[in-house]
Amino acid sequence: VVDYAEARTDLPALLEALAAHDGEPVIRVLLLARTLGEWWQPDGPLRRHAAIRDVLAGAEALQLGPLTIIPLRHQETFHAAMEAFAGHYGIPAPATTLRPVAKDTPVLLLHAAALTAVLDARQGSGAASVAATEDVVAELLGHEDNYWSSSATVHGLDQFGVGAGARRQVAAIAGLIGADSEQEARDVLRRLPVLADATALTVEQVLGWLRELYPATSSSWLGPIQPDLLLEYLVTSVFSGSSELADAALTGLPEHRALHALT
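RE: above sequence
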């Protein structure tokens, strides 16, 4: 399963490798994209490879409608997610209930509310009820910030003057832009005014901390905070408050990294 297929620079290599596959076992590929734009067209860049054209010859394009849940299943979805998260952390599922929600509430917000309820219960501060609104995303980032703080202490970032605000900026820019190599990752961090004039040792410490937090994926040397909903909220909260920060982060990006950021 390839998410954001239209923005994956490693997709041709993947499909070429599959074209050479001998057929056993059978491998099916699901490409998920927001649009069937130029990347998917018969004369588009993806099909310029002969082997890939053969692989995609019988591909079927399906347009998916919005994911909705009938209102009666909101509670069921919330409690199932809460059970799963509680099991992951090895604690009993809390008795937290879900407050009434709008019919078109995204599933991811229900999951965020469930995770928030479990994390709060794990810390001994559980509430009787929780709302599946954007507030739970902010609360989840608060839990993530606690994680950043404890791991930053292990890496000694406080000694290098990298405080809570700087850590949020680092996590935001790394997920927003990404990097193809270690040097590109250094350059991305240097875009932040707080690290522009930092010592090389400081940048290396921050980079080591970041790589440990979010292991890299196949399409980037830097791994992003997941899921996208959390990253999007972090990025908007960090960059919307400072045009200087946004300009420094986004000006003069390589084309594929600008595409990554926009996507």
